[in-house]
Design a protein that fits this description.
Two copies of one chain form a homodimer.
Chain A lengths: L9 H5 L32 E5 L6 E2 L5 E2 L2 E8 L9 E5 L26 E2 L4 E2 L4 E5 L14 E2 L4 E2 L9 H14 L5 E7 L1 H12 L4 E7 L7 H15 L17 H15 L2 H7 L19 H16 L2 H13 L2 H5 L2 H6 L4 E7 L7 H13 L4 E6 L7 H4 L2 H20 L10 H4 L21 H9 L5 E5 L5 H10 L2 E6 L2 H9 L4 E3 L2 H4 L8 E7 L8 H11 E9 L4 H10 L25 H12 L2 E8 L11 H4 L2 E7 L12
Parallel strand pairs in A: 5-8, 5-11, 6-7, 11-12, 12-13, 13-14, 15-16, 15-18, 16-17, 18-19
Antiparallel strand pairs in A: 1-4, 2-3, 4-8, 9-10, 19-21, 20-21
């Protein structure tokens, strides 16, 4: 059992180490005295500031007051003259103010999000001014239970008041104001940091242009609370815990804290990641030792993680932070998520990871659903990455491009002050047709690089309207409509690469499956719902199309005409299932998702008999000429666009809590 | 912290309580002195017996010897005269010999598997003689670390030798012999019990007719070991643990054991089950208390579970059992799973639960794969049940019927001594056509209750051959072939209800997806592979069919002919996608899985050009008459059966480790 004088409130002591004094100039991003590492912010220095002094105490959510509060923080990059490029990073349970770079040239470890923060990285320090502070209640410099209570001159211990995510945000807000920033370009963070992002966006909607809650939740599940409870139990039941008053004794609850960390660590990884990293490998010998020493590599690893944590983290802060996470519950606080999200004004980029089982993607999707229902600007990606909850600290390939594209678009909008209009569609994203769900280009198309049906659909859409594009692929159609018709668009697609392209071109998009996402959209919440070359992949056609008619004023559907003469010819006279340019797949070799084949007449029957909807317009086209086909369209058109609408008077269903 | 004289080796004391002495008659299944509960074995009594006395010590896997060993066990039902109806139940980590019934009329709790053991239940005590013993190393009566070491007259503590799953089985084997049983009808158990089942079947293949490994694995994953390590760490780091020598002191590692149990308990449940059971409910108040007491219901529950466990379980046994599970590794022991499973002779029923994340279904599937590769008789079902790993202790609806049908069939075969022939197909299972994947019955069929293509396919199959039926539905075809042609059959299907029906009618079946299960079958391991009305749902047609040709000497495929004249008529002259009796689904309303439509000519092209296989036979049929169509079959036949085979000389790929 690890215990001894080295644990005598080292957290208190660490507060005085290497800190800039108030008034001292913060270090610049450039490395001093040695060559800068590629993409690194270089040497950085922690700063501190004291708030809530004298009578000006912080009124906490639990009812108590707290002050003074010291805050430790770091900054990277430069605040621009407009002061509109500041990004606040929020750390997770075991994080601190040191997000990037090194404190000393020989530091073996960089800041906790160094892979994401630096020149040219996702949080690009050449564009943005990045701020990161240690949270209230922490043990890395900011006031917490290891701090000296000015009233008693003793460390707070468990007499430190219970703090919540909102309390953390209050302290950060004071810091942001102190730095002279009225409105943040963005607040971003994973896990507990993501909870703070949500609190920022809900309670200070005018002070956050973009919110990036990553691998987080509006409230922990029962399982999440249960794991936290085990960690707390391990600490509280440790005989050395001494009701939190261990700071000035020679005993420290090292065993309990280590066990808490070990449990935590398992939940931060995925089963797959652990399998890949450790499998059933033994630490040393070939054979079993038949004793209770650490024998499997994974045991040694966990033990090591536990020991490292005991050396750097305070058991009481573990209790306070885990409890703050358990308490965080937007549903409880606002009645429902819809109400909570209705209060926001930020653009949202929500990110989850498919292997994260502690903050599962489902929980991020609940956030996204609420944002969509509240008609907010949201993009969502569930990144395919095997590292579990820790993915947000490890994955850069997709995450960086998403964040980087999203931040740049948000910053441009902020600067142009005309949201939704000044969208630049990069030539690169236009020139990537192969990422579209359907590869359909009329060879004689007069619209180079665009799909024939896109141009036809664009003609049907009124300027300044709202458009929901289902199966939007890389967002070409929405980008076109945003640019030329000033529409407010929203896309739904499945491909990760498509989501990145959308983020880079300023198209809001969520990574949802069409078959089960429609219920989240409010009645008549869009002027147009577009289903362009996507009807083929819908599984529950009648129910989904009914939902689309509910959500949109008009529904625009395009698909290849199954009864095109070439197909009939093959089928009738050759006795073979039809295959031609627009339906190029043989029966045994078509994409998994492609299931529906229908003719113009089939669809008309369906609209009339099944949907009982109104056929507003029918545009049979020839993909060869790009023009409308007027003679025997079900025979001569290989492509068709329908516009349909509800017959009902459109009494609107209530949405909300 | 719970500690005190009540923990002074109560496990040692419990061994003397209420036990039948050797020679005393065991109680009968009938309840004495009070009305028997419906389906209950009633009042039962624990018995004990002592083995490995004197020089006859048990040689353990770790190299040490142990003896004498007392074994505590219970039995329910009666051993029949042939002594072929004995079933051994193997318990999990926290279980004991008390599997069913009550010890005293006022016992509030029944045995740990009471829902499955009793008259008319899955393990039917009116048919079978059920045995359950406390495992070696346990703390519920059988010799373990809380027992008195005869050499020192003190409790063993950590001087108790490390035991393995095989050591447990050795002791059980002595017990089974002692009860006068040469061959068990079955060995069954979940979790750690399932590991024992596997060890039984591998090391004593002639002594187990049927093996039922449930919710188990051939080896724990890194994550599984990690959770065990956390539990052990919590105990080992408890200051009251005293290196396992706490029995005769006033201190007991209650805190550590409770934390271990809490972690364990989370892993036994699923996230969904915890959400349903507790959600984020608070224990008492409406508002947060802002302290570190148990506040959420889930915390109280875990704390309670921890306390209960501390009262009934020995911390050392927790260490020994969890280590035995970590050590269990059939791959390590036998070089590969294939080699391990090749040694078995039992019929297998492998069961997993889709919400079990501690022993995930994937691990059961690895077992099943190895059994299939080794050409063993195996059935597998992944039961849809939300309760996580604990499902095997809670789910009865599917599990009971599966086990009950499987045991009855095994017992009948054992008694007839002619495996694979005496299969009774119940009238009930024949009369359930709606469970078949495809609902295709010629209305004029002369074979009442059977599919026309089944009778045609049966004619193609030689007696005494082997048949793999992919998409076998409820196993009608295989049952028919087993009965009339004495084939050895194996089915693959997805429906849970179908799996149950197969088990009840003696058809071996695994619940696998056709698209990714083929690689497990060895080259030419079946005379016939049948794809009856299943081609329509295959996703990767070319690769799957190539695999089928590899696995079977001949491949028999039946499907509806897309180019049947009724379809052509509709398509050509009405311009609508074809719909008729055999292809009854409209484009917008067909089953999710149905994706492929092909004509007789399409398939012939495919066999020739893509598969480059040999067309052995083509039987176009009319579903109306059930007869072959000779005139213009691609026009007049609505159904077709193909027999195809490899062109190659059939050089056989090696399978194995």
């Amino acid at each position: 059992m690890k215990s001894g004088p080295e644990h005598n409130n080292k957290f208190e002591i660490s507060r005085d180490r290497d800190l800039l004094q108030p008034g001292e100039a913060p270090p610049s991003s450039e490395n001093k005295g040695q060559a800068a590492e590629e993409g690194s912010v270089g040497l950085v220095q922690t700063q501190y500031v004291k708030f809530f002094k004298g009578e000006d105490k912080l009124r906490l959510e639990c009812g108590e007051s707290l002050g003074p509060i010291e805050v430790v923080y770091e900054t990277y990059g430069r605040l621009n003259d407009q002061r509109d490029n500041a990004i606040l990073l929020l750390h997770a349970l075991s994080g601190d103010a040191h997000a990037a770079g090194r404190h000393k040239p020989d530091d073996t470890k960089c800041g906790w999000w160094d892979i994401m923060v630096g020149p040219g990285k996702a949080f690009d320090t050449e564009r943005y001014f990045i701020i990161c502070s240690n949270c209230l209640g922490g043990c890395m410099g900011t006031t917490g239970s290891s701090s000296i209570n000015p009233a008693t001159k003793e460390p707070y211990g468990l007499s430190f008041p219970m703090i919540t995510i909102s309390d953390m945000v209050e302290v950060q807000r004071r810091l942001v104001e102190h730095l002279g920033i009225e409105k943040l370009l963005a607040a971003a963070g994973g896990s507990m940091g993501g909870m703070q992002v949500l609190d920022w966006a809900i309670r200070y909607p005018d002070q956050v242009a973009a919110a990036l809650p990553i691998a987080t939740t509006a409230r922990l599940s029962a399982q999440g609370i249960a794991f936290d409870a085990v960690g707390r139990n391990a600490i509280l039941r440790d005989e050395n815990f001494q009701e939190g008053g261990y700071y000035r004794t020679s005993r420290y609850p090292a065993g309990g804290l280590a066990v808490a960390r070990m449990v935590g660590h398992i939940t931060y990884l995925s089963e797959e990641a652990m399998h890949t990293k450790f499998g059933r490998r033994l630490r040393q010998s070939q054979g079993y030792r038949y004793d209770f020493e650490n024998e499997f590599s994974v045991e040694t690893y966990l033990d090591h993680q536990g020991s490292l944590f005991v050396d750097r983290f305070d058991a009481n802060t573990y209790l306070y932070f885990s409890k703050a996470m358990d308490y965080f519950d937007l549903v409880r606080q606002y009645g429902c998520l819809h109400e909570a999200m209705s209060r926001t004004k930020s653009r949202f980029l929500v990110i989850s990871f498919n292997s994260d089982w502690l903050f599962p993607p489902r929980q991020s999707q609940e956030l996204v659903n609420a944002l969509l229902t509240a008609d907010k600007d949201v993009s969502y990606c569930n990144i395919n990455c095997p590292y579990g909850h820790d993915s947000f600290l490890l994955e850069t390939k997709v995450q960086s491009r998403l964040i980087s594209g999203f931040l740049r678009q948000t910053h441009e909008r902020l600067q142009s002050d005309k949201p939704g209009i000044q969208v630049s569609v990069s030539a690169e994203s236009r020139a990537r047709p192969e990422t579209a769900t359907y590869h359909w280009y009329g060879p004689g198309s007069i619209f180079t690089g665009e799909r024939v049906d896109h141009r036809q659909i664009a003609r049907l859409i009124e300027p300044d309207s709202t458009v929901l594009d289902l199966g939007c692929g890389d967002g070409q159609l929405l980008a076109l409509l945003q640019k030329e018709k000033n529409i407010r668009g929203m896309g739904v697609t499945l491909g990760e690469e498509d989501i990145v392209t959308c983020a880079e071109s300023g198209v809001s998009v969520v990574q949802y499956n069409l078959d089960n996402c429609m219920s989240i959209f409010a009645d008549k919440s869009y002027d147009y719902v577009v289903l362009s070359q996507t009807l083929q992949v819908i599984r529950q056609v009648p129910s989904v199309l009914r939902e689309l008619l509910r959500v949109g004023e008009q529904l625009i559907v395009s698909f290849p005409n199954f009864a095109y003469w070439r197909g009939r010819w093959q089928f009738t006279f050759k006795g073979r299932a039809p295959v031609w340019k627009n339906l190029p797949y043989t029966w045994f070799d078509k994409p998994d998702e492609s299931v529906n084949y229908m003719s113009i007449l089939d669809f008309e029957d369906f609209v009339r008999e099944q949907l009982k909807a109104r056929l507003v317009k029918r545009i049979p086209i020839s993909s060869r000429t790009g023009r409308q086909v007027r003679l025997l369209p079900n025979f001569f058109a290989d492509e068709v666009i329908f516009v349909i609408a509800d017959k009902s008077d459109g009494s609107v269903r209530q949405t909300g809590c």
